[in-house]
Amino acid sequence: MGDLAKIFKAYDVRGVVPDEFDEEIAEATGAAFVRVTGAARVVTAHDMRASSAPLAAAFARGAASQGADVLEAGLGSTDLLYYASGSLDLPGVMFTASHNPARYNGMKMCREGARPISQDTGLREIRDLVAEGVPAHDGPAGTVERRDLLQGYADHLKTLVNLEGLRPLKVVVDAGNGMGGHTVPAVFAGLPLEVVPLYFELDGTFPNHEANPIEPENLRDLQAAVLEHGADLGLAFDGDADRCFAVDEAGRIVSPSAITALVAERELAKHPGANVVHNLITSRAVPEIIRENGGVPVRTRVGHSFIKKTMADTGAVFGGEHSAHFYFRDFWFADSGMLAALHVLAALGEQDGPLSALLKSYDRYTASGEINSEVADQAAAVARVAEAFAGRPGVEVDELDGTTFTGDGWWFNLRASNTEPLLRLNAEAGDEHTMAAIRDEVLSIVRREEEK
């Protein structure tokens, strides 16, 4: 059945179809999923990739073979699957490889209430049961039923954001041929928005550009269209539409940290004094703005499993990552790029100025963005940086996730990739000159041995 350890990753299943991940594995996983979760009913959804519907159908066969009834939502975004799991209180599986190239596919799994399943919370058991062979079920097979949940999802999201004061806006939306092309029309229906659609045709071959808006080159069409149409803003979604990026009226890319701060302020207005979670590479403006609005910032490691667990443990009202994942307590602690987009539209539509003016107070520092260096000995590279920086007056060091160095008006973090020989640098300072100096000094130290 192939190398299951390769495709069953820390938080999901992902691999090349059919070489690494095929319908046989999907069917066996459906059976194992029911065994491990004890589910009597399961809900599924899938993205627009050519392999997604067949894989979802195979999973349904496996789940039904173990006596579970399967509710198929069909085409949907990942946050639509979370809506289904949360509102119906069912465990669920989303078939998607998010922003990965067309030849990939995968599964994101959750228990009822959209609670994530990772290696430590059931995914390892599911993998092992698939490898061993799932015992036959002693009883009748379950049923498979199709139900369209798109309208319910769209209606629910609009109950979570106050859109009453929204003035007419022109917005360009780049769906990247991903699931945003399916969900945006339903969610934006009835709002005073003139939508200029880019690449709304569902096409898992991604003929226009990768559905990965964290890469600036994948936002160029959106930036050009905003300027061409004189739009108030642009929004871009990734392949499974669970992440959302924005550009302002001048076509400038908006930092996800600025969106985190904006949404945090809005959520704190509804829930005064609440906890708000942010990962350690978001801008320092984020915890500052949380405190200024009476909230309590909670710093966590990078990664959705850490964000979701910390939110659940602290009852946080909102959580944001610099990768443009945004999590909401009112949405079962799950992430929803569409819900973040509605917050941005509501905030912009409540006042008369442009998006750039609205976001100015949230964008206080200059950031490097994430810079990867291929490093054979990551620990040695970090040790060289520590030797250079740790002894300097006023510099603080912590190791919550990788190593973070904080000085007077600047900080940077070095984190090793779990899967590649890469060291990731994020740096930020109060001005471009200081940030560039810190960034260049760290990179020169990190890459010194590699250049010999």
Automatic annotation (TrEMBL):
Domain Alpha-D-phosphohexomutase alpha/beta/alpha: 6-131, 152-251, 257-365
Family annotation (Pfam families): PGM_PMM_I, PGM_PMM_II, PGM_PMM_III, PGM_PMM_IV
Cofactors demanded by this protein: Mg(2+)
InterPro entries reported for this sequence: A-D-PHexomutase_a/b/a-I (IPR005844), A-D-PHexomutase_a/b/a-I/II/III (IPR016055), A-D-PHexomutase_a/b/a-II (IPR005845), A-D-PHexomutase_a/b/a-III (IPR005846), A-D-PHexomutase_C (IPR005843), A-D-PHexomutase_C_sf (IPR036900), Alpha-D-phosphohexomutase_SF (IPR005841)
This protein's UniProt keywords: Isomerase, Magnesium, Metal-binding, Phosphoprotein
UniProt keyword annotation of Isomerase present: yes
Domain Alpha-D-phosphohexomutase C-terminal stretches: 370-443
Keyword NAD annotated: no
Family: Belongs to the phosphohexose mutase family.
NCBIfam families in the record: PRK09542.1
Protein name per its UniProtKB record: Phosphomannomutase/phosphoglucomutase
Organism, scientific name: Actinocorallia aurantiaca
